[in-house]
């Protein structure tokens, strides 16, 4: 970095000596703009500033020169500089890949001990693909219970082999590990709250304005850094998405309580997760009990009736009551979950990844893997487009990432979207869904696609059988719905459940 600054200083000095530097005044600061014969860049000197790097190292940037550079131009004496805003899985994985690829990387995170409200479930393939150590995975879930509106329980997981499981992690541990790894590979971790960015021209650098917490102050001190590109990894409420006018999107609100339950009850959830479906727990999602490190997370979500989220949470707690009774609530949290990708995920040299881009799958509400993967894919495209940080790059490189992403995952998002629409729309449909989950072939296909994130080719004969079963389940659920609308009695188990189902 020091070498970069030195070279930049020299370049500006040379430009000034050759009479190519013209004064330029901006926001009370005298700046100089180089009028170079080459169309590829114009240089500016910016005032001295300080920025701090995680670990209390503080770097002083004396007069620094930056240039507007066209995409593809070779960067003289410095590396491409990228700011990643947000240090969750998407940001940390983007920063790691950028730093490894030779890009000067700044990862800005407002809260380094952030404990993102999250179930913390990750697919098995993520462990190998992202080289995750086992000590950051608290539990291995090998059994799941799907629980229908009438409390019919179906055990899912019987097709799993001994080496197959779903990982459960604490996000404060998980995210911290990924950020530290990025730092070891050369990323600068900056503890600060991103406020806004400015770009003088479409080929020019960005000034990132943020509140620095590096000195431990709660209020933060205004600070800024200058970069060539931005990756917005700042989650569902992304400020970067707002800045590039990425468009609104539907979101679910997810509510979760962390409950410390007695040891004997915790034993039950040792390697078991539960999913409850029913109009009582959510009109369009599911309620869950996930085992965490030394407690369980009980939660639910909804898009269509957000104001009733507490009522759905109460119902989820009620339905799991026998198993969580005597527990102490240790944390209550709520957070939006994006429902679909943003209309726009890139503008010029700014890219969105993870929740900021809207990459959570419907039906399952899974986002950790997709966040990490999108961060990595965006960064890989930038590393490649910039020839390991030696050339300027921009929208073309970002579009490579977006095209690859859409080709790889568009079908996954669509299929899960359709499944959610078909099976979560009414209690009879949910009963049919749970019934379908009993089938070993359905379990295998579902687990394989979740654990390995690939659509595993099935057996054609079993596929046909599955199709027939699915259609008949749906028809049956439709029949139950019309019977229901004619007010004819249908039994769904207990009286209470029957009343609840019939009320749907
Ligand atoms: C209740 C709940 C349960 C969930 N359960 C699961 C689950 O079990 N499995 C699963 O796969 N997914 C789950 N998800 C989804 C998952 O949490 C997200 O998809 C995932 O966290 C997205 O990662 P990300 O890095 O894109 O964003 P985030 O994890 O949201 O990270 C964004 C980061 O940016 C930082 N930040 C935000 N604004 C700024 C700013 N202005 N300046 C600096 N830093 C900023 C934040 O502090 C945060 O660290 C759940 C979500 C919720 C709400």
Automatic annotation (TrEMBL):
Ranges for domain FAD-binding: 80-371
EC nos: 1.3.1.83
Uppermost EC category: oxidoreductase
GO MF entries: FAD binding; geranylgeranyl diphosphate reductase activity; geranylgeranyl reductase activity
Xref: InterPro entries: BchP_ChlP_pln/prok, FAD-bd, FAD/NAD-bd_sf, Geranylgeranyl_Rdtase_fam, Geranylgeranyl_Rdtase_pln/cyn, Geranylgeranyl_reductase
Domain of life from the UniProt record: Eukaryota
Protein name, per record: Geranylgeranyl diphosphate reductase, chloroplastic
Organism name: Chlamydomonas incerta
């Amino acid at each position: 970095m020091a070498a970069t600054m030195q070279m930049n200083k020299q370049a500006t000095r040379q430009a000034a000596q050759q009479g190519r530097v013209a004064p330029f005044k901006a926001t009370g600061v005298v700046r100089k703009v180089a009028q170079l014969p080459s169309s590829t860049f114009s240089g500016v000197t910016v005032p001295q500033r300080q920025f701090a790097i995680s670990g209390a190292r503080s770097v002083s940037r004396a007069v620094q020169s930056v240039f507007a550079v066209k995409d593809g131009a070779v960067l003289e004496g410095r590396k491409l500089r990228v700011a990643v805003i947000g240090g969750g899985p998407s940001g940390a994985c983007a920063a790691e890949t950028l730093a490894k690829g030779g890009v000067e990387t700044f990862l800005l995170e407002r809260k380094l001990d952030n404990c993102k409200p999250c179930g913390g479930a990750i697919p098995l393939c993520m462990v190998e693909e992202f080289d995750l150590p086992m000590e950051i995975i608290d539990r291995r879930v090998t059994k799941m219970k799907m629980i229908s509106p009438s409390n019919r329980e179906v055990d899912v997981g019987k097709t799993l082999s001994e080496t197959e499981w779903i990982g459960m992690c604490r996000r404060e541990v998980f995210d911290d590990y990924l950020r530290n790894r990025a730092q070891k590979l050369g990323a600068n971790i900056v503890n600060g709250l991103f406020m806004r960015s400015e770009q003088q021209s479409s080929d020019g650098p960005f000034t990132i304005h943020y509140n620095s917490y590096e000195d431990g102050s709660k209020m933060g001190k205004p600070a800024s850094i200058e970069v060539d590109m931005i990756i917005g990894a700042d989650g569902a409420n992304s400020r970067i998405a707002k800045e590039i006018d990425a468009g609104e999107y539907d979101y679910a609100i997810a509510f979760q309580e962390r409950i410390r339950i007695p040891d004997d009850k915790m034993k039950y959830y040792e390697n078991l997760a539960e999913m409850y479906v029913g109009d009582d727990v959510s009109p369009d999602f599911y309620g869950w009990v996930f085992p965490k490190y030394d407690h369980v997370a009980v939660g639910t979500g909804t898009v269509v009736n957000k104001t009733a989220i507490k009522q759905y949470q109460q119902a989820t707690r009620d339905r799991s009551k026998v198993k969580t009774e005597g527990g102490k609530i240790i944390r209550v949290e709520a957070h939006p979950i994006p429902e679909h990708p943003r209309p726009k995920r890139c503008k010029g040299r700014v890219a969105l990844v993870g929740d900021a881009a809207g990459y959570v799958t419907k039906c399952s509400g899974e986002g950790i893997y997709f966040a990490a993967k999108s961060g990595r894919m965006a960064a890989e495209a930038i590393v490649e487009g910039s020839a390991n940080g030696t050339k300027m790059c921009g929208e073309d490189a970002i579009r490579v990432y977006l095209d690859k992403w859409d080709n790889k995952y568009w079908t996954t998002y669509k299929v899960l979207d359709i499944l959610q629409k078909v099976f979560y729309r009414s209690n009879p449909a949910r009963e049919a869904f749970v019934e379908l989950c009993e089938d070993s072939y359905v379990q295998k296909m579902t687990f394989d696609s979740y654990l390995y994130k690939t659509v595993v080719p099935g057996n054609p004969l079993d596929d046909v059988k599955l199709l027939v079963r699915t259609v008949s389940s749906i028809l049956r659920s439709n029949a139950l719905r019309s019977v229901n609308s004619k007010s004819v009695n249908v039994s769904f188990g207990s009286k209470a459940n029957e009343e609840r189902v019939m009320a749907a």
